[in-house]
Write a structure and sequence with these properties.
- Keywords: Cell wall, Cell wall biogenesis/degradation, Glycoprotein, Hydroxylation, Leucine-rich repeat, Membrane, Repeat, Secreted, Signal, Transmembrane, Transmembrane helix.
- Residues 43-76 form the Leucine-rich repeat-containing N-terminal plant-type domain.
- Pfam families: LRR_1 (PF00560), LRRNT_2 (PF08263).
- It is found in: Secreted, Cell wall.
- By secondary structure, the protein is of the alpha/beta class.
- The chain folds into two domains: 1-162, Ribonuclease Inhibitor (Leucine-rich repeat, LRR (right-handed beta-alpha superhelix)), CATH 3.80.10.10; 173-340, Leucine-rich repeat, LRR (right-handed beta-alpha superhelix), CATH 3.80.10.
- The protein contains four helices and 21 strands.
- The strands form three sheets. It has a twelve-stranded mixed β-sheet, with helices on both faces. Strands 3-5-7-9-11 form a five-stranded parallel β-sheet, with no helix packed on it. A four-stranded parallel β-sheet has the order 14-16-18-20.
- Strand 1 (74-79) and strand 2 form a beta hairpin.
- The protein is elongated and about 75 Å long.
- The relative contact order is 0.07.
- Mean pLDDT is 92; it is low at 1-5 and 20-28.
Length: 340
Amino acid sequence: MESSYSYGLAIKFLIFLLTILNSINPSYQSLPQLNPRLIKAYTALQAWKQTFTSDPKNFTSNWYGPNVCNYTGIYCAPSPDDPYIYTVAGIDINHAKISGSLPEELGLLTDLALFHINSNSFYGSIPNSFSYLHRLHELDISNNKFSGSFPEPVLCIPSLKFLDIRFNNFQGNVPEKLFDLKLDALFINNNKFQFSLPENFGNMPASVIVFANNDMKGCIPSSVVNMKDTINEIIMTNSGMKGCLPDEIGKLDKVTVFDVSFNEFVGELPDSIGKMKSLEELNVAHNRFSGVVPESICRLPRLENFTYSYNFFSGESESCVKLGNHKDDKKNCIPYRPLQ
């Protein structure tokens, strides 16, 4: 697993470097000798190009011939299991505005570490053959027109660390197995998922999770505490969530952003949030919280923005009032405060 992780990071750096070099001298790259893996890549990429119905920027105008390492957006590197064999290690066609779909032949790209196609108009579903991409480190298909159920082939990719499927039309349940993956970042926001967070939610060692603008229901399970060593950002705004925030939230002392606004949470804010010493942005607006805003939260040393408007809070300490422009307390039930 560690070698796959290192391979992914190396490919990410390689793509960055090649992008710079290519902008200086587009012909700098000497083409590697053809081998069976590059021939398979040629088959896969030509099958993919056949699905394209629109390429308004002519991004793939040089996608012809067997020298796939010269294709725009295709990045080759030595194979992790044989440094003398070149293979397709990365695909980055972000913002190309291409319309098309993903064919099963893409599963032939078994050395692929990065697959970035965000901000295009790809549609359909994720091919089952993606389960063969065992070295895939980053999968970004955000801002497209994919639909159907959750793309379950990604659950079979052991090296996956970064998964971004936001701003598509996926719907239905999110499988519990997703939260057993060793992801560092997960973005599934702005789809049409309908699910509740399972008890194994805390199994994922992620630093960032964004679930906003789905139909989640339910509450945040207490297992969230298991993420305390890794999690930095939690964003679950406008997700239809209910119930109370668990006291275990306070143990997430590495979290800098916690946003559960525009939900249906009730009860009091846990005083334990005052132990989240790294917290910079806290947004609990547009819920049904009540009681007194804990003073310990307003005394957090790094707190820059605390929004708790549009709730039913009945009181706040002087420490909260002194936050001034760094807090928003309007539309509550707090005596002597403006805009209640």
